[in-house]
Design brief:
28 strands, 686 residues, binds beta-D-galactopyranose, 20% strand
Amino acid sequence: MAAFRSRVGGLAYGGDYNPEQWDPAVWREDVRLMREAGVNVVSLGVFAWASLEPEPGTYAFGWLDEVMDLLHGNGIAVNLATPTAAPPVWLTQLHPEVFPIMADGEPFGFGSRLHYDPSSPIYRRYAAAITTKLAERYSYHPALAMWHISNEYGPTAYNPASSVAFREWLRRRYGSLDALNEAWTTRFWGQVYTSWEQIEVPNIPRSWSNPARRLDFKRFTSDALLECFVAERDIVRSFRDDIPVMTNFMRFYRHADYWRWAPEEDAVALDIYPDPADPSSHISAAFQYDLFRSLKGGQPWMLMEQAASAVSQWKLNVVKEPGRMLLGSLQALSRGADSVMFFQWRASRGGQERLHSAMLPHSGPSSRTFREVVELGRELRLLSGVAGTSSRADVAILFDWNGWWGLEETYGLPRNDFSYADTVMRHYTPLWREHVPLDVVSASSDLSPYKVLIVPNAYLIDDVGVSGIQEFARNGGTVIMSFFSGVVDSCNRVRPDGYPGAFRELIGAKIDEYWPARPAETFTVEFTDGRVTTSTWWREDLHLETGKPLAVYQDGLLSGRAAVVENTFGSGRVVYFATLLEESAFGEVLVDAVREAGVESPFAGVPSHVECTIRGDKYLFLLNHSADEPTTVPLTFAGIDLLTGAEVAEEITLAPLGATVIEIGGGKSGPQPDDRTTRIASGASL
Ligand code: GAL
C-alpha cells in the first residue's frame, strides 16, 4: 500500500469508470474532466465481462487497451477490476446451473448482477479464465496500480453444488459424522446423519431449520465467497505480486465475516451510501469507518464507493445538499481512509442506475455536483499528508459476525426481533456524541491495548472470545456488557450451569430466566445515585452473586431486583445492563463507566453535532453535521487550517455542514509536538 500511496501522491481520488458504456469520443472528454477534478485513480471494468469476452473464449481487449493507455497518458492510475460479479448471458445459457438458487428454491435469473453460485465449479472455472486473461495482458501495464477483485461479494446459494461444497467444508470442520451430529444436536427432532451425502444446505423455506446447521451454513457461505476472492487474488499475484489486491465490502453486511476476509487482502475497502434523509446516518457511517480502520489493525482503508449526491435504489432518494458530500468525504478520512472514491465517474444514460448521481452528472461539468467534485479534488491534494497515518483508541467495541448470526439467523430465541446493527449503534452512539474514539474488535482480537471493552448483546460467543473477555477484565479492564450475552457456545448450544453460562462469574450474577417484555410494557428503574429512568423490551430474572446493583426495578414482578449490575472481576470492573434502558439514560451510564475507567475525550464540551477526530496524532478534523447552525469551536492551541492555509488559534467557526482539518501546532506560534500531545491527552478542551 505504501507504493500505491506514493504512486497516487497521497490520497486516492476517483471512482468507478465504465467506458464500455460510451463511445471513444466521450473517453477523451472524461479524461480531460478527470484531470480538471484532480482524479488520480479509477476503478475500471467492474461489470465488463460481457464486453471483454463477448463469446466463450473470444476476447475483446482492444477497447480496454485504449482506455488503459489513455488513462496512463494522462497520469491516472487504474484499479483494474476482475469482472466476475456479472457473468455474461452466454455463460448462464450454456450452464444455467451457475445461477444461484435462492432460499425459496427458485433460480436467480439473468438481467441483474451477482447471479452466480460461489460454489459452482463451472462459475469458478470461467471466472479464473477471464481473470487469467486480464492478468496476462495488464499485469505490467504502467497504468495498473491495484486489483479490484469482483464486486461486493454477496450471493447466498442453495444449489446442488453448494451442498457438495458444504459437505466438504463440514468434513474439514468436524472430521467425523459423530462430531457433526454432536455439534448440531441432531438427536433433537431426529435429524441424525449416518453418511455425509445426506447433508444438504438448509433449504427448507417452510419451516425453521437446525440452528447449528444454519450457523455453519452462514460460515460456509462466507468462506465459499472468500474462496472465490482468494482464487482470483492468487491468479493476479501469480503474474506479479507487488500490486495491492482488494475487493469492496458493504456496510453492516451480514453475509460475509469481514474479520476472516481482511487478512487475505492488502487493504480493506468500503462502499457506503449514508442516507441524507436519515439524521443519524453519519453516526452509523462513523462506526463503519472505525470498523474498517480496525479490520486490519489500524491500517488505512479505502473508501471505494460513495455517491456524489442522490442514489436511486431506495423509495425516496434525497440529494446531498451543498457541502454534504465534502463533509462526508472528510469524515471518512478522519477515521482512517486513504481514498475518496465514488460510484461512479460519469452517470449512465440507461440501465438500472441511470438516475444515480455521479461525479460527472447528466447535467455535465457546469453542474453544482461537478463544481463540488473539483473542490474536493483540490482539498484532497492539500490533505495528502494525512495518507498513511492512523490512530488508536482506548475503548473497543466487540463486533462479531458469529454473534450477529446467532442473534438474527437462527431463530428460537426468547424474542426473535433482535437487530445486532441497532444494538451496536445504541452502544456506539453515546460515545460518538461525546467524541470518545473507539476501535472495533473481533472475538479473537488482542484486547491488551484497551482500557474499556463494550460487549453488545453477545448471545453467541466462542470460547476464545469468552476467555479473552475474562482475561481482559481480570487484568484490570472495564467490561461494559449488555443483556442476553454469553448464552450459547459456537455450536449454538446453551452453555451449562444456568445463564449466562459464559459470563456468570464475570457479571457476578446468575440469571434464572430471560423475560422479554410484552409489547409497550415499560418499567421504572432507579439508580443507586437516585437517578430514575425507564426501561423496556427486555428484563432478566437475575440473582446477584458477587455483583452489586447499580440500578433496581421500582415496579413489576421484578421490583427491588437488579436491572443494572456492577461487579469486580480480578482487578477489573464489569457493568452489566440486564434491561433496555431508555436511550439517554443508557448513554449517560455508559459514558460515566468509560470515564470512570480513566478515558476522557479531549473534546468534552464541544457540541455533539461537531464531530472531532484526531488522525495521525496531528490532524484534527472538525466536521459540523448541522445543516442549520454555524458553530464556533474554541481551540486551546495554534495550528494551520490545511484547507485555507490560515493560521488558527483560540477558535474556529464552521459553517453549516462545514468541515476543516487543522494541522495541530503547524502554525508559527504553535506548541511543539510533545506539548500538543500532552495537552490533548490531558483533556484540555478545544
Ligand atoms: C454499489 C455497487 C455499485 C453501484 C452502487 C450504487 O453497491 O457496487 O456498482 O450499484 O452500489 O447503487
